């Protein structure tokens, strides 16, 4: 028996937004019945490219249904650009976590959302890229590498849990292990290079660098969507900011804060940075 959170159970037993939106502006279909999981996501989008409704039809397990239900709740009210930044880990976090063996359900939700956005924008369906590693589930090396990097995976068991690759006949295990070795070796080399050049900043230098990154890397991106940001305080590695304009009331403000603002400061200042919002 899987150890499901109460929120997973709720979204499975009482799924939100089942069916199809009244006016289908974008549709994303991923998975297949032969593989055991399939998801069809439809979006209704207004003239400002904001998602006004999202509905799903899923064939799969409790985690697949709960992940699809959670996804539709998360993206309603977001712009397409905001929704495009939603990750599978955020879907799992919204549900209070998923069993590691069921994380592929959150990946399926993320991929369906990407497909629906592409469909709305008139972009061609995503073509299979790379070499097919797992014949049973049609998973490529590109698919595996993407999920490994996004979720910091390191074992064959984790790859199977997140992508289903290797969960069938098992003939691809050797290929997955070889791919993991290449990815992890590259990751180790990058980490070593970073360790060789540690940042040693005084508090004044850190504040100045934070201000520069906000002005050059963060504020211009927020302003394109009518938002802005103000630096309130810096206490050690804790950076307090206030979101302005559309960012202050956006449903995706926490994603913006953690997945954009904090990540940019970690990239250009120090990996120890933690961003908190001041209302």
CATH class of the largest domain: Alpha Beta
Major sheet description: 3 strands, antiparallel
Number of helices: 11
What Rg do the Cα atoms give?
20 Å
| Mean of all residue-level pLDDT scores | 89
Structural class: alpha+beta
> Would you count the extended β strands for me?
8
Give, in order, the helices and strands: HEEEHHHHEEHHHHEEHHE
Q: Keywords, please?
A:
single chain, 279 residues, alpha+beta, Arc Repressor Mutant, subunit A, GMP Synthetase, Chain A, domain 3, 3-stranded antiparallel sheet, 48% helix
Structure description:
This protein has helices spanning 6-13, 62-75, 80-83, 88-94, 103-120, 141-151, 156-163, 173-196, 203-223, 246-249, 253-268, and strands at residues 26-32, 37-45, 51-59, 132-134, 139-140, 227-235, 238-245, 274-277. It contains eleven helices and eight strands. Strands 1-2-3 form a three-stranded antiparallel sheet. A three-stranded mixed sheet has the order 6-7-8. The longest helix is centred in the middle third of the chain and has 24 residues, at 173-196. The radius of gyration is 20 Å and the shape is globular. 48% of the residues lie in helices and 18% in strands. The chain folds into three domains: 6-120, Sufe protein. Chain: A, CATH 3.90.1010.10; 132-196, Arc Repressor Mutant, subunit A (Orthogonal Bundle); 203-277, Fe-S cluster assembly (FSCA) (GMP Synthetase, Chain A, domain 3), CATH 3.30.300.130. It is of the alpha+beta class and 279 residues long. Helix 1 crosses helix 2, helix 5 packs across helix 7 and helix 9 packs across helix 11 (253-268). The model has no long low-confidence stretch (mean pLDDT 89).
């Amino acid at each position: 028996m899987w150890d499901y959170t109460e929120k997973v159970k709720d979204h499975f037993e009482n799924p939100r937004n089942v069916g199809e939106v009244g006016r289908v502006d974008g549709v994303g279909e991923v998975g297949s019945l032969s593989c055991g999981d399939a998801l069809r996501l439809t979006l209704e989008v207004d003239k400002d490219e904001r998602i006004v409704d999202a509905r799903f039809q899923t064939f799969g397990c409790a985690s697949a249904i709960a992940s699809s239900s959670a996804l539709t709740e998360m993206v309603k009210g977001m712009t397409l650009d905001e929704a495009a930044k939603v990750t599978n880990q955020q879907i799992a976090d919204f549900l209070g976590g998923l069993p590691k063996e069921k994380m592929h359900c959150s990946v399926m939700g993320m991929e369906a959302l990407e497909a629906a956005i592409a469909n709305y924008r008139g972009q061609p369906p995503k073509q299979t890229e790379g070499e097919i590693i797992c014949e049973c589930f049609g998973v490529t090396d590109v698919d595996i590498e993407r999920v490994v990097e996004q979720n910091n995976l390191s074992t064959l068991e984790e790859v199977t849990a997140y992508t289903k690759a290797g969960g069938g006949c098992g003939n691809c295990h050797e290929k997955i292990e070889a791919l993991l070795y290449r990815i992890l070796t590259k990751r180790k080399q990058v980490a070593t290079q970073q360790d060789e050049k540690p940042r040693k900043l005084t508090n004044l230098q850190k504040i100045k660098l934070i201000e520069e990154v906000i002005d050059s890397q963060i504020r211009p991106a927020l302003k394109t969507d009518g938002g802005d940001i103000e630096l309130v305080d810096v206490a050690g590695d804790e950076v307090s900011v206030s979101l302005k304009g559309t960012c202050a009331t956006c449903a995706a403000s926490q994603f913006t804060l953690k997945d954009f603002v904090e990540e940019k400061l970690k990239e250009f200042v120090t990996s120890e940075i933690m961003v908190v919002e001041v209302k």
